[in-house]
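Notes taken during the Thursday session

The instructor put the following on the board and asked us to keep it in front of us for the whole hour. The protein is ABC transporter substrate-binding protein. We were told not to look anything up and to reason only from what is written here. First, the residues (412 in total):
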Amino acid sequence: MMEADELSDWIGRITSQMLTPASMSAIVERINTTIIDSLPELSSDDEFRRDLDASTRGQVRAFIAAATTEDTAYQPPAEAVALARTVARRGMDVQVLLRVYGSGRTTAISILNEIVQSAPVDPEEKMAALVQLWESAVKWLELSTDVLLSAFTQEREALLRGTSARRAETAHAILAGDSIDTDTASQRLEYSLRRWHTAVVLWSDQDDLRSFTNMEAIAARLTHAIRGSGSLSIPSGARGLWTWISTPAEITRLPELSTQPGVHVALGTCLRGRDGFRQSHNEAIAAQHVANMSRPSIAVTSFADVETAYLLGRDATACRRFIRRTLGGLADNTETAERLRETLRAYLMCGASPARASEELHVHKNTVRYRVEQAFNLINPGRRSDHVAIELALRCLDTFGIDWLLSSTPSD
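Then, after some discussion, the predicted structure tokens were revealed:
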């Protein structure tokens, strides 16, 4: 039987295996899958899932550090506090956090049990290790829950003390489709709902005050650039901002928009009234989903540019199959295939006109003809006459990127 010091050293060695990149990713994915299964209404919420992933990863690291040291003080990782703030800022119920912690705790303890049971040591030593780990885990998770619920409560109370809370509550009610008088809602928002709106979703890969300030500055620059007559912004979480800009009835062309590293922008189309307020936001959320799927992630995404890719990409596995089946060798990861895809896409979007495509690409029209012929030779023979399917496949691949296509095996 191991002595106490030997047992602690052994626990330290086996738990350190959880910190390898592959093990950490597998553990985080397993815990998060269990959590999302308990919160199906948030399964398609990219911002919540991003904050959840960061929180779970931080919590696993923090627990391993706590389980292998004598320091009993619990300091929540910044990512876990950010998740609590996100839940509060989004107006979610505290039950969301309780489900996160409850489901996560159960799965984490199961994982610890499996790791210890798989170790080649005597059953008595396994049981001693499990007892020590369970005691550490239960104590640590209780402290974790208390501290993070306190962070949630403080954030919620801070929001309730200001007029921003009234605006956020009203905006969430409209987005949820609640029945509310348009003029009353406009007064609460301090923003007219009877105008045309362009919704914007901004989010950051970093959790700090500077990134939030950057997002507010980007929203202000965009409002000025498209000649908006007013705007409304509410925090969507610890690392996100939702904005609506009162815009002209039609925006013919979005301005070039520069962002800070790690900051992303997604825009809906320009729509009118209370329903337009909600629908444009839903479009911006859809554009955000496309940006997060793309490899590499897109900095600025307009729903008008990616609507087709969004609709086809809602089933990512089916979309990949469609692209591979339609494009054949034209979907290869080579410079030649990339150049031919660009030419064929321009050719089809220009109404199969070599002259117009040559102007678009700034090459001779004979070059366009030659590349188009080469491109069709790479496409599966049964699909060569289906120009609609080819153009759709090219749009999706152009939006999501070749790395996204290759991120799953061809058998998917």
